[in-house]
Amino acid sequence: MESHGAVRRDGHNRLVVLDGLRLLAALMVVVYHLLHGEGVRDDAWGTPTDQLFPGLAGAAAYGWLGVELFFLISGFVICMSSWGRTVGEFAVARVVRLYPAYWFAVVATTTVLVLFPVFATHRDWTHVLVNMTMLQSLMGVPDVEQAYWTLSVELLFYVLFALVVVARGMTVRRVVAFCALWTLASLAAPWANNAGVYMFLGRGYAQYFIAGIAFYLMYRFGANALLWAIVGCSWVIAISRMWSEIETYDGSAFPPAAACVTAFFVVMALIANGKSDRIRWRWLTTAGALTYPLYLLHAQIGLTVIAAARPYLPAWVLLGATIAGLLLLAYLVHRLVERPAAQLLRRALLRSLDSMRAADTVPVVPAPRAPAPLVTEPAQPPTDEPSDDEIGNLRRGTLQRSPATRL
């Protein structure tokens, strides 16, 4: 693939603007679940939210699009963070990033639903245990928290990217080939009529990851026609799939949704082409750190708080206080749980990698061969009868028999 010269930027420099975008995406999802999620009006607020929050509730109806922004950013960040790493190092980085906060969130959410079942009840305990693996979607088990469905999409993307690209060694041509082949495979997946294949190939969201990967290649190596073609194709697929989903229940929602997704692509294109390089606000790094715990903890805990406190606070105050409390909780989880646990888990996993590498370098010593058994003539049992030779010697008178054999 033709490029605009050598590497343009250090591909591992942190882009704080992406941290800000992640927080924006998380807040979109939070507001959506608190104001527009299933069962919210009856069980949490007690009053239709479009009456309590005129204008805001209508905008919150599109908060689900924050997931699409998450996937765009994820494609960019995963390609950036995996460059130059082995599969083992890539796997350690992803496990350390995903699991410590997630384990805490599953336990915390379940505890709240057990102690304060004012909005919902906890899942079966076996379901909770399966949720600890993050593989519940693959096993047909309900999520403890409704937002967790996206984690299996992310996890399968990591596996696919690691097996196809990282394992072979990342190069621009291999990454571009991966984008092209994954695009075709994701389009053909529904024809397979197999839920497992469809899930493994992205569940209809592959185009966002692919566009994010292409944006990263633009950022690091410079834009060219092929990368723009990948981005444009991904955008067309995203808009087309969105129309097929929305038209079945509310066609009027399509123009705002399509405009929002298009804006996401435009913003990522500006970042990929260096238009945000001057943004270096330090607080954005902290904002990015809050994103994952906030996403994991917001829905059931937030709705439980709203259902319990709504008789005592005005609606706008309650909404603001709930979001502020969730941000504070996310910060505490990041500082007191996620960071310490991630350090311990990283050290343990890296030691495991080192031990496996050391084991692979130990030469294999062949087992010593067992000595071949000696082949001897079977012993003849003693007998008092003379042998044929002895009889012949006796006839010639040359053998002196012992007293034991005398006749």
Using brief descriptors, characterize the structure shown.
mainly alpha; 407 residues; disordered C terminus; disordered N terminus; 16 helices
The parts where pLDDT drops under 50 for at least 5 residues are 1-7, 398-407
- How big a fraction of the residues is strand? under 5%
Give Rg in angstroms: 34 Å
Helix/strand/pairing class, anyone?
mainly alpha
Shape: globular
**Mean pLDDT reading:** 85
**How many strand elements?**
0
Cα(first) to Cα(last) distance is 107 Å
Task: Enumerate how many helices there are, as a single number.
Answer: 16
Folded structure, characterized:
By secondary structure, this protein is mainly alpha-helical. The chain has one domain. It contains 16 helices and no strands. The protein has helices at 16-35, 40-45, 49-52, 56-60, 66-82, 87-115, 125-131, 149-164, 172-192, 195-200, 206-221, 225-246, 254-272, 283-309, 315-361, 388-396. The longest helix is centred in the C-terminal third of the chain and has 47 residues, at 315-361. The model is unreliable at 1-7 and 398-407 (pLDDT under 50).
Task: Write a brief caption for the model.
With 407 residues, the protein is mainly alpha-helical.
Write the layout of secondary structure elements.
Elements: H1 16-35, H2 40-45, H3 49-52, H4 56-60, H5 66-82, H6 87-115, H7 125-131, H8 149-164, H9 172-192, H10 195-200, H11 206-221, H12 225-246, H13 254-272, H14 283-309, H15 315-361, H16 388-396
